[in-house]
């Protein structure tokens, strides 16, 4: 039986736009309401001359024009449609015809996001990597081997990685990396370890992008810095290789620890606090649970690598929550990894990273509660406050251990150890918001009382102080980890302090009344116990922020300029 005889054939009463988009049409003439609202040209099909199904013949083809059967029959006969895919966004308003041959292993959401992003983003933006770009070439293992750098360039990139990236992202086995690299150099034509190759390319990508940021920093005073960096081109090539190896390893179905750690490292190094990477980080969390990284396999005296990798992926999810406000995707109820102060690693870099991970987790948890629609009770706030005090004590103990290890482990990355306090102060600032929200104070209190929230002002000043010391110490030591340094931009606490300064210009705010259990990094050039700290800390923080401004994307730079203008206006008025 001919398929056309069993296909429902009825006249198409909807307009062409609504029919092709599979949307409900109001059938209003001459323009339906949807086309009128969207500004589309509304065209209706010609009236169908119906005929019995069993009398279908080639002579009746003209009568079936513009019918449902006509559209289905045209699609069957058009062989090109087998090579294309129609993609519609969630709103149903964006439909794109994408050739399957160019994007063989991408899901629909990624392609739509890429096409929208390409139309809206600034093409001149080179300080963050575009992870939404689509890789159109398919590489085999021979092609991947040919993409590996030569020995001199490879050694240079690995050395830069070990000095400037690995101490801050200790989620790979550095000894195994060196051994595999030597094996590849010995027999490059027979090397087929894809897990090692994805780690190689992730390391080369991270080092290349870090060196690209170094170039931007070196030419920051030029009016027209050179954006065509060879290191940026190398990073794009290595990203293409990583995406192809993901397919060869079947990462979507059987993710490996090298693949997870490689992707996590690339996302952290080449983005700005994982902005616009919420989907990628959520996918990493799914990979981690598929690989069983959240399960504790053995009781070891040292923290195994898989636990550090899982903690780092949860850390990426935490910073996505902290900086975007999206709810956290990590399900900590299924986490079997112990989070106490026992059995901690002896390596300072890993120890500092664990402290940073825990502080960020607390910050994300409070941010998620703060973003909720339900009004929290006082008991909920007290629970979060106890969790905050517990985390503060644990991080203090970890930092005490770090200070003891500093004598035996000389590191140029000691300035990064206070990063955990940065996240903890963010959590403290949001806890002040949460407390006021739970008590309904934002609606019941007067604006005078809101601006005079001492806990909020103190936590904001502590955060500004930690940000200033982190950046200034790193720049004084001539760090090459600018990719990590640029993640600090405390605009919101600065605005809170400036707002308090505007309302209370004659107030004297300092750290004299703080409890002894409140730890913060101190500078020998600042008196924290007398006088007004607001202007001093804001001015010093702005001095160091100006140094790394060139490493931010344009939208962050514009925000910084607006905050800077507000600061200049208020502090100049106070000086008068």
TrEMBL record:
<dbReference type="InterPro" id="IPR050613">
    <property type="entry name" value="Sec_Metabolite_Reg"/>
</dbReference>
<dbReference type="GO" id="GO:0008270">
    <property type="term" value="F:zinc ion binding"/>
</dbReference>
<dbReference type="InterPro" id="IPR036864">
    <property type="entry name" value="Zn2-C6_fun-type_DNA-bd_sf"/>
</dbReference>
<dbReference type="GO" id="GO:0000981">
    <property type="term" value="F:DNA-binding transcription factor activity, RNA polymerase II-specific"/>
</dbReference>
<dbReference type="GO" id="GO:0005634">
    <property type="term" value="C:nucleus"/>
</dbReference>
<keyword id="KW-0539">Nucleus</keyword>
<dbReference type="InterPro" id="IPR001138">
    <property type="entry name" value="Zn2Cys6_DnaBD"/>
</dbReference>
<dbReference type="Pfam" id="PF00172">
    <property type="entry name" value="Zn_clus"/>
</dbReference>
<feature type="domain" description="Zn(2)-C6 fungal-type">
    <location>
        <begin position="14"/>
        <end position="44"/>
    </location>
</feature>
<protein>
    <submittedName>
        <fullName>LAME_0C00232g1_1</fullName>
    </submittedName>
</protein>
């Amino acid at each position: 039986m001919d398929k056309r005889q069993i296909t429902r054939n009825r006249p198409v009463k909807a307009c062409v736009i609504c029919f092709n988009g599979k949307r409900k049409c109001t059938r209003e003439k001459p323009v339906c309401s949807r086309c009128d609202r969207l500004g589309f040209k509304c065209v209706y099909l010609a009236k169908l001359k119906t005929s019995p199904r069993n009398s279908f013949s080639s002579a009746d083809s003209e009568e079936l024009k513009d019918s449902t059967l006509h559209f289905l029959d045209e699609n069957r006969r058009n062989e090109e449609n087998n090579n294309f895919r129609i993609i519609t966004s969630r709103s149903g308003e964006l439909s794109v015809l994408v050739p399957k041959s160019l994007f063989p292993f991408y899901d629909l959401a990624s392609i739509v996001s890429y096409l929208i992003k390409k139309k809206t983003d600034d093409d001149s933006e080179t300080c963050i990597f575009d992870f939404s770009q689509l890789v159109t070439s398919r590489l085999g293992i021979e092609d991947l081997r040919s993409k590996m750098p030569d020995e001199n360039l490879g050694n240079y990139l690995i050395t830069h990685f070990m000095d400037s990236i690995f101490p801050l992202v200790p989620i790979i086995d550095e000894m195994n990396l060196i051994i595999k690299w030597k094996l590849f150099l010995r027999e490059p034509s027979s090397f087929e370890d894809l897990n090692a190759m994805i780690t190689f390319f992730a390391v080369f990508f991270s080092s290349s992008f870090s060196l690209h940021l170094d170039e931007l920093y070196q030419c920051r005073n030029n009016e027209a810095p050179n954006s065509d960096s060879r290191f940026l081109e190398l990073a794009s090539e290595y990203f293409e290789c990583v995406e192809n190896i993901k397919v060869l390893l079947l990462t979507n179905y059987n993710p490996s620890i090298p693949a997870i750690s490689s992707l996590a490292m690339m996302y952290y190094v080449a983005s700005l606090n994982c902005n616009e990477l919420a989907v990628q980080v959520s996918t990493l969390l799914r990979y981690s649970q598929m690989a069983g990284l959240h399960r504790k396999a053995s009781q070891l005296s040292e923290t195994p690598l898989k636990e550090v990798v899982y903690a780092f992926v949860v850390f990426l999810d935490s910073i996505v929550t902290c900086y975007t406000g999206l709810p956290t995707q990590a399900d900590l109820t299924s986490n079997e990894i112990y989070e106490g102060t026992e059995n901690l690693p002896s390596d300072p870099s890993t120890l500092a990273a664990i402290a940073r991970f825990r502080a960020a987790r607390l910050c994300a948890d409070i941010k998620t509660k703060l973003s909720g629609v339900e009004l929290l009770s006082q008991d909920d706030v007290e629970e979060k406050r106890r969790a905050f005090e517990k985390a503060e004590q644990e991080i203090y103990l970890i930092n005490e251990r770090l200070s003891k290890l500093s004598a035996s482990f000389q590191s140029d990355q000691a300035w990064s150890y206070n990063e955990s306090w940065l996240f903890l102060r963010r959590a403290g600032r949001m806890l002040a918001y949460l407390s006021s929200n739970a008590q309904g104070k934002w609606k019941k209190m007067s604006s005078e009382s809101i601006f005079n929230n001492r806990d909020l002002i103190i936590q904001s000043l502590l955060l500004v102080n930690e940000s200033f010391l982190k950046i200034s110490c790193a720049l004084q030591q001539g760090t090459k980890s600018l990719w990590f340094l640029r993640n600090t931009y405390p605009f919101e606490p600065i605005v809170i302090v400036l707002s308090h300064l505007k309302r209370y210009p004659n107030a004297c705010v300092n750290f004299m009344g703080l409890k002894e259990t409140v730890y913060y990094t101190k500078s020998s050039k600042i008196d924290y116990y007398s006088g007004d700290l607001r202007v001093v800390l804001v001015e010093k923080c702005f001095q160091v922020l100006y140094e790394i401004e060139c490493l931010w994307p344009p939208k962050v730079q514009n925000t910084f300029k607006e905050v800077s203008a507000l600061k200049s206006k208020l502090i100049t008025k106070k000086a008068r």
